[in-house]
């Protein structure tokens, strides 16, 4: 993108400027690691441009509005900072790119969600939310309950729910069955996940116990072929 072109006002339309800015954002996201400052700054600039463009133009396309809302929701969730100014999503970088015991057929990551948003694969809030929740659930399935990643996944999921309700204006701006999933539902899901995790751990422990030694009578038996 040519900054001098912007300064000299050589763009004939907001869409023309949008194309150049999108290319700049795409390059920053493609060539920098997820979680890096350049990556996060590119996402923030993308969100700010979407919001500014929405204020300057009138787009009657419901689908465009949904895609923009989902993108802004993702960016605000991914770039959410705690009271110490730390990005909560940073701890997810400790997760392996591919685990031996992957809980899902697909490895769900924040960057995968971001790419799907860029390619406009999400047309509904509930589809986007399902994939994002699998990012959080994957983090919990691959870590222990007392770990920072596990706790941060819960914290960030609660933050997402709050941001989602605010951006969708509690259903006034965007209605979706996804809005029915609240913190109470999350608590029920966490109980279910922990029950499954405990059951799996118990099964693995039983399988790891070596077989008991045969009795003397068994050892003295003669087996005839």
UniProtKB/TrEMBL annotation:
Pfam families: Bromodomain. Residues 215-225 have a biased composition (Basic and acidic residues). The keyword Nucleus applies. GO terms for biological process: chromatin remodeling; transcription elongation by RNA polymerase II. One of its GO terms (cellular component) is RSC-type complex. Residues 193-225 are annotated as: Disordered. InterPro entries: Bromodomain, Bromodomain-like_sf, Rsc/polybromo. This is Bromo domain-containing protein. It comes from Rotaria magnacalcarata.
């Amino acid at each position: 993108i040519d900054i001098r072109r912007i300064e000299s006002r050589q763009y004939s339309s907001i869409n023309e400027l949008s194309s150049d800015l999108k290319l700049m954002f795409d390059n920053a996201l493609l060539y920098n690691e997820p979680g890096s400052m350049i990556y996060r700054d590119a996402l923030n600039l993308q969100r700010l441009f979407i919001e500014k463009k929405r204020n300057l133009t009138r787009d009657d396309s419901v689908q465009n509005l949904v895609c923009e809302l989902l993108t802004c929701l993702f960016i605000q969730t991914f770039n959410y900072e705690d009271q110490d100014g730390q990005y909560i999503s940073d701890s997810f970088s400790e997760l392996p790119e591919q685990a031996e015991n992957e809980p899902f057929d697909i490895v769900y990551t924040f960057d995968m969600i971001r790419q799907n948003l860029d390619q406009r694969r999400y047309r509904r809030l509930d589809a986007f939310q399902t994939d994002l929740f699998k990012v959080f659930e994957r983090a919990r399935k691959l870590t222990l309950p007392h770990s920072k990643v596990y706790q941060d996944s819960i914290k960030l999921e609660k933050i997402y729910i709050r941001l989602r309700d605010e951006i969708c204006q509690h259903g006034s701006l965007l209605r979706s069955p996804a809005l029915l999933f609240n913190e109470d539902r999350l608590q029920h899901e966490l109980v279910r996940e922990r029950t499954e995790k405990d059951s799996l751990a118990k099964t693995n422990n039983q399988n790891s116990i070596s077989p008991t030694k045969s009795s003397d009578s068994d050892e003295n038996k003669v087996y005839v072929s």
